Structure formats: C-alpha cells, structure tokens
Amino acid sequence: MERCASDTEADEQQKPLLRRRQEVPRAPACGSSRYGLALLSCYGFFVVYSLRVNLSVAMVDMLNNTQQSSGNHSGSVCPSHDTHQRPKHNHSANVYNWDSATQGWILGSFFYGYILTQIPGGYLAGRCGAKWLMGFGILGTVLFTLLTPVAADLGASYLIVVRVLEGIGEGVTFPAMYTMWAAWAPPLERSRLLTISYIGAQLGTVVALPLSGEICFYWGWPYVFYVFGAIGLAWFFLWAFFAFDSPSSHPRISEQERLYITNSLKNELSTSAGYIPWRAIVTSTPLLAIVVAHFSYNWSFYTLLTLLPTYMNDILGFSIQHNGFLSALPYVGCALMAVLSGQVADYLRETCLYRTVVVRKSFSLIGMIGPAVFLVAAGYTGCNYSLAVTFLTISSALGGVSASGFNINHLDIAPSYAGILLGITNTFATIPGMVGPVIARALTQNNTIAEWQTVFYIAAAINVFGALFYTVFGRGAVQPWAVPAFYSHGD
Fold first, then answer.
1. Is 214 in contact with 321 (CB distance < 8 Å)?
2. Which of 56, 121, 218, 332 could be joined to 175 by an S-S link, Cβ 3.0–4.6 Å?
3. What is the CA 111 to chain-centroid distance, rounded?
4. CA–CA gap between residue 314 and residue 65 (Å, rounded)
C-alpha cells in the first residue's frame, strides 16, 4: 500500500518549507533565463501543434470532391457560404478517393506513434538530458512533415506510416519539457511559467488552422506541409543554441537567478536521481486522478482538434478559405484563458494563501465541466452559424482553465519525476486521439446533425466524469515517495 499523507497534514509539514521559499530573494522576471526558456519552449509547442493540426484542414482539400472545384461546398447539411473563385494554379495538387473510414484512420494515425514514446520520453529525459531529446524529437517530426505530400501520392497506407513516425518524434516533447521545468520552475512561479510555455500549443493551433486554409486556397495543400516544416527547422536552430537543461548548465544566467531557482527547489527535488520508485508511482492514487482527468479532457480536445474543420465543412458549409479561420477561433479563447488562469492560480496560492489542492481542483472543475456544457449546446444550434461558433469558442476557452488545474499537478505531487509522470498520464491521454476520430467518423457516416450531437454527448460525458474523479482523488502536496526523506527510511 502507498503511504499517502492527507493534504491538510502535508500543508502543515510544508509550512517551514514555504517560509524558506519566501526568504529566498526573487530574481527579476524581465530578461531572465527562466522566462526566456518559457518563450522558446512556447515557440517549440507552437511548432508541435501546427505540425499536428495542419492535416485536419489540408484533408478537406485533399479529397476528390468535384462539388468543391469552384471553391464552394454544396454538399453540407446547412446552406453553403459563397467565397471568391479559387486561383486555378492550385488545382495541380493531387486529390484522393479516401472514404470516411480511411479519413478517420489517417487523422488518428499520428497518435499511434505518439503513444509509444511518452513513458520512454520521460525516462530518457531524466537520464540523457531533456534539451536534445526534445530538440531531435521535434526535428524528426519536421522532416517527416516535409515528406507528407510524397507519402500521400504513394497511397493512404504510406501517409499513415509517415504520420505514425511524426507521432513518435512528438511523443517525447511534453515529458522532456516537464523534466526541464522540474529543474527551472520555482514552485510559486510554476503556473505562470508553464502556461506561457504551453500556450504555444494553443497558438500553434490558432495560427495553423486559418493559415492552412489560406495556403490551400491560394497555393494548394502540399505547401501547408512545406511552410510549417520550414518554421519548425528555424525553431530547432534557436533551441540548439539558446536552451539548456538546467540553470547550472546555462552559461549566461545571472548568479542571482541561478541561486533563486536552485534554492527554491533544493527541498523538493530528489537527490537519488538513479532510483525511480516505480511501485509507488504506479500505485499512486493522486497520479491515477491525473490520468483519468487527462484522458477525459483530451477526449473532447482531440475530437475538436481533428474533426472541427470537417464539421465546419460537412455540417455548417464553410469553404476551405473560411474553414481554417473559424476552426481556430475556439483555440484563441483557450490560449487567452490558459495564460489568465496561470496568473490567477499563482496569485491565489502565493498572495491569498489558498491551498494548492483547492486551486488545482477548482480550476479543473471549471476547465472540464464548462466545456462539456457548451459542447453539447453547440450540437443544438442547427444552422445558426454564429451561435455554433460562439458555443464552440466558449467551450474551448473554458478548457484553457484546466491548464492550471490537473495539467500542472504532476509538478505538485512529484517534481523530481514530473517527466515520467507526464509520460504515464500522456500515454493514457493519447488514447482518445487514437480512437476518437475513428469512432466519431464511424458515428457520422451520413453527416447529420443528430449524428454529431451523439459525438458531442460522448465527449461531454467523459469530460464530466473525469472532473468529478479528479475532485475526489486529486492531491496538491508532494507525495512522500517523491522527496529525499523517503529514501532515508531505507526504501
């Protein structure tokens, strides 16, 4: 059985630690290395998500549908929206006769590779260094992205293989970055730094969806992969020169900032780097709570991420040019709420002295139940385009609040093993990306509003269950097995 202190007991035990943190002089944020890393990793996650979602828009233009040849879509449930005549030169790009089932497998194939490197990524980041693991992981994804048009011409099976290989490369990114933040993020700045870092995922989605639509409209779908591949190459060179695994290995960090970070973390990070308490980790109830919440949230997130352009096209009748922009709107709200929630969460913990567990659970409830309500509501808007887009935007925006909820909780309960914990939770949270698009396309073969309502209901129900489970079993304190004192008892 796992030795697990209650949050009240843990808070009492950590009061001396909190006082010691407050005595450490804080290094300024402006021009600091830790915020520089946050911005650079933000750019990295921008690349990660732009490479992940660009196929969702390009897929609309890759299909052999003669009804779209004029730039309009006349086969949608709702009346189509007129748009300008498309330039004729982009019709030189090949199109394919992929049925609904094949589309689902192509859209979900990325996650079959992504799930393979989650736990190995967390382990290797701790043993071999997170900087180069993340750098080469994204570089591999970039190179396979550039090969996507060639793979599509060879056939759907080749495209699926390329997408699986892209997923393998990206699978190490989140565990590697969590490992870096375990060494870089002072405890009372975690919400701020991590939300700045991971807002790149939202920004990548926000930029990639509309830009992919414009690229498809004016140049043709192959250039979607060339443009974003080039952006990814630029990031790799910046990362190689300016990112470092820890403050102690950074050649240009100020001594004040280095001492501030290391002193604030010295009582939380385990000194037994070679020992990993696997039994305690896999039997940890607080970790199970994060797993369930992460899985549940990602079901609705990946449903929208991969299929929202299809919904905009098949149901609401938006053309390829408008599709990307409207599909991106929900993620604009999500990005803004993620950053705002990070500021509020740290303010509540540091200034108002709210317990960490209260903040994490409150933000998770808002960030999971709120999206479920508005996702279901979006299915009942019919052809009211404005209301549908509004509800989907609100749903995704509220989801951004969870960035300061369960999503950061790995660093709260076991900062020494944050990368491994993230690898474990993200492994289970990848399953919705694998099966969600396949199930959704299987349920929407006739593309009726009623079929899509079923898809939204399933996602909402899973979201609510995850929020309630995390509320009951989630914890906010460092677990006994994750601190140096645990090993002094001979375990």
1. yes
2. 121
3. 12
4. 12
The answer to whether the predicted template modeling score (pTM) of the entire model surpasses 0.70 is yes
Task: Give the number of other Cβ atoms within 10 Å of residue 259's Cβ.
Answer: 15
186 Ramachandran zone, left/alpha/beta (phi>0; psi -120 to 50):
beta
| The pair of three-digit structure tokens given for residue 143, joined into one six-digit string | 């190179």
| pLDDT value at residue 286 | 95
Say if CB 137 and CB 102 are below 8 A apart.
no
- Interval 296-320: pLDDT, tens: 999 988 887 777 777 877 777 776 6
Closest CA to 90 of 214, 228, 225: 214
Task: Encode burial over 52-83: b for 16+ CB neighbours within 10 A, e otherwise.
Answer: bbbbbbbbbbbeeeeebeeebbeebebebbeb
CB 170 within 8 A of CB 51: yes
Structure tokens at 425: 């939770």
Residue type, 298: N
Tens-digit pLDDT profile for residues 243-280: 999 999 999 999 999 999 988 887 666 544 567 888 99
Residue (of 205, 94, 220, 209) closest to 151 by Cα position: 94
* Secondary-structure percent of the chain, ordered helix, strand, coil, rounded to 5: 75, 0, 20
Closest residue by Cα to residue 225 from 168, 161, 159: 159
Residues 6 or more apart whose Cβ sits within 8 Å of residue 245: 129, 130, 131, 180, 183
Calpha distance 65→116 (Å, rounded): 35
- Residue 63 backbone phi and psi in degrees, to 5: -85, 145
- How many whole angstroms separate alpha carbon 291 and alpha carbon 404? 15
